[in-house]
Design a protein that fits this description.
By secondary structure, the protein is α+β, with helices and mostly antiparallel strands. Strand 1 and strand 2 form a beta hairpin.
């Protein structure tokens, strides 16, 4: 390939990466700490999301991953009401 084509490809790749970073930075992150007790075990986890609901859901899933065993328990834990939810700055 000639030099002009390489410059065009490199410029396109840089433009794509720049746009990706620019649009990703614009998403506001909400952070939440969720504590869940399931089957006598407790876990607290912090997670971030583009909405408060997404942050809570992700933190709940992360907490349940540590205290539940198998698919059935994980699903049941995910439906458990959290002991506490705290939003962080």
């Amino acid at each position: 390939m000639n030099k002009k084509l390489w410059v065009i490809i490199a410029g396109g790749a840089l433009a794509f990466l720049g746009a990706l970073v620019y649009f990703s930075m614009g998403l506001r992150q909400h952070k939440a700490e969720v504590c869940i007790t399931f089957n006598g075990r407790q876990s607290c986890r912090v997670a971030a999301g583009t909405t408060p609901e997404e942050a809570v859901r992700t933190a709940s899933d992360n907490a349940c991953a540590l205290i539940a065993s198998g698919v059935t328990e994980t699903m049941a834990c995910g439906r458990t009401k959290p002991d506490s939810i705290r939003f962080l700055e």
